[in-house]
């Protein structure tokens, strides 16, 4: 993800996509993700895809469809990191906290994944659902800000 944070900008330039349009598209993707989490549609779809893949005995396809990687380094995460790094292209010293925050988030994700079974046993499901919805709401606010920033920059507002 750190490599993509820096190389992603050049890739976008090569295909003619501006950072502003990425902000708008990334904001829309993050908003859809947040809405799915808020209304618990994502979990149902993911469980259905896993069941279908296992029922069909097409284990080669399991490599293709997402299980854990999109949650950590999927389109939403990659878009977010490019946008955050892109905000500080002139002052590269401000990129250091973004990279440190990314590393910290990845370490926390690793710890939580390792200890997920232990954590879930002791926390009531209501708390887990409430936490997920609060985080989804924060994600929706972040998505909205990305969209607003992209529109402002695109139209020089």
Automatic annotation (TrEMBL):
Record's bilayer topology term: Multi-pass membrane protein
UniProt keyword terms in alphabetical order: Cell membrane, Membrane, Transmembrane, Transmembrane helix
Keyword Repeat: no
Predominant place of localization: membrane
Tagged with keyword Transmembrane: yes
Membrane-spanning residues: 21-39, 62-86, 98-120, 127-148
GO cellular component: plasma membrane
Localization: Cell membrane
Protein family: Belongs to the UPF0056 (MarC) family.
Name of the protein in question: Putative MarC family integral membrane protein
Organism of derivation: uncultured marine microorganism HF4000_141F21
